[in-house]
Amino acid sequence: MISLLLGVSVADRVNYSLAEALTDSSGAGEMLAEAERRGLFVTALEPGGWFEVHGLVRDLLRAELGRRQPERLRDLHARAARWFEATDDSTSAVEHWLSAGRPREALRLLADLAVDLFDGGRASAMRRMTEEISPSSFVSDPEAMIEYAWCQMPIDRQSFQIALAAAQSSQPVSGHSAGRLEILRAAAAITSGDWHRCEDQARAALDAFDGPAWLDSLGRFGWSLVARGIALDERWFDGGPEVEEVVRGVSHDPERAVALEGTRAVALALGGYPLDAVRTAARVRPIAEAGDMGTLRVDLALADAIGIRELGDHGQARQLLEDLSSQSSYPNVFVQFLAQLELVELHLSEGALDCARSAFRSAAEICEYDFGGRGATDCLARRGVVLGLACREPGDAAHWARQIEDPFWRPVSDARVLLAAQRRTEAAGSLALAVPRCARHQVVRHLLLGRSLHGSDRGSAEKEVAAAAEIAAEHGMLETVGDSGRDVLDLLELAAWRVPDGWMRRLRHVVAGGEVVPSPTGALVAELTVRERGVLRLLPTRLTLHEIADQLFISYNTVKFHLRVIYQKLGVNSRAEAVATARRLSLMR
């Protein structure tokens, strides 16, 4: 019995199988049950057939075993590690490999757990376990150095950079190991704000793997990095070949597939599809919360904030953006950075120039110290142009325009500076070089072309503005048109017959410089989905939202989300107004 208790003392709790693995005794489980019946400091835990030795006694036994038989203690920890690894409890297995003095085995497992531990809000546990591993013990092992750098990546930028430099300076690698190292370089690129280089390196890394990249934890993450690059480059197109390739790449890993939805939501928000972005965030959020996926929750919050601001709800967007911009989002530094830049645009749309300058300075500090890659500097400079023009500082605006390398935003920013100087013909020439990559780009280009042609070719200007209005109304864009449309408001009015009345009414409010406030009169801004019509038909009843959720077999939060979208599409702000407007528009049939 004493030998049994000594053997199982290495684990906080044991069951029959683990006890047998630790003691090499087929009757170990029955002995534990006997010890529990005799009151020998063993407690049976329900359910599952687990037992627990009293904590104080367990610690004393473990200390005694370490004093008398240290080799046996390490062997027992190794046995426990193998057992936990075989039962897919990798976190416990890592702890036991470390206690067994086997850091290489611990590192192997920890590398597979790195992203999941971080996403689950267990960065402190990740940091603690990594700190117990000294890289000096495997400096001659390139693969181990790669795994060590990978474990440092989600924890701390400086430690990651040091570990990556050590991995790159170790013995030359090729094939599979070369692909893994290139994934780390891609991760370093996106944490520094260079998502163009990140995507290129991630693609090169995936091509370098000997076999299917999805069989490797770093390989699976490589497709996530490619998706980030596409999203932040504002060229995400659902169903397009690039996106479909990414979807196939992550399809073998359910966790990565769910995380991809967060990237997709951000991409939709940045690309000018605010309604789709908000819908996606609402659909995926319950999964993120149930799975404790912290990184995914942050992505969804950013998508929500950008989408809601585009839909004209400044109050809610401001709160979300201020929350995101006030806290570190490492390793996804772009979340905090983009939130600051969205605040710049929000303050400018409200005419709060001092607040816009303050938010811009905060974003510039992030860019200077942590996030100075090409993608980030382009995003900062774009807002610098808009801020300079709003503050009537054309010299500053021109300075920022020269900093931009993006093939769409550089000619667009040049055109804005030229239009401010009344050089319309040159502005039109610059815009001819801008090739749109998403709906937002199309709207911005059409509106600026409308402004540049306004004085010389009014018919062409009307067509450009009408095209912008149609695209914007289709996807729910308001702020993008409102911010760019003040100078062509008369042309927008001529295009009013092409777009829903509700959207046009809300746009007038944005152009006038105020936050969109739904009107009780209401009008259909965008078509309702089948599910939204289902919720709408139950609104005239006396059912509560919880009862509506039960009727439709959906969650209460999903009903709330659908209700919010219904209000936005109908241009109303209450249940009674939604019912009245829906009846007037014959939507209740």
Describe the structure.
- Helix 23 (409-420) runs antiparallel to helix 24 (424-431).
- It contains 33 helices and 3 strands.
- Strand 2 (42-45) and strand 3 (50-53) form a beta hairpin.
- The longest helix has 18 residues, at 254-271.
- The protein starts with a helix and ends in a 5-residue tail after the last helix.
- By secondary structure, it is mostly helical.
- It is globular, with a radius of gyration of 29 Å.
- Strands 1-3-2 form a 3-stranded antiparallel sheet.
- It has helices spanning 2-8, 16-23, 28-37, 55-68, 70-86, 90-99, 103-119, 123-131, 142-152, 157-169, 175-191, 195-208, 217-232, 241-250, 254-271, 274-290, 294-310, 314-325, 333-349, 353-369, 374-390, 394-402, 409-420, 424-431, 439-453, 458-475, 479-484, 489-494, 501-511, 530-538, 545-552, 556-570, 575-584; strands at 14-15, 42-45, 50-53.
List keywords for this structure.
single chain, 589 residues, mainly alpha, 3 strands, globular
Oligomer: single chain
Stretches with pLDDT under 50, minimum 5 residues: 517-522
Number of helices: 33
Strand order of the largest sheet: 1-3-2
**Distance between the terminal alpha carbons, to the nearest Å?**
76 Å
Q: Give the strand tally.
A: 3
Largest sheet: 3 strands, antiparallel
Output mean pLDDT: 88
Label the overall shape: globular
Q: Kindly state the percentage of residues in helix.
A: over 70%
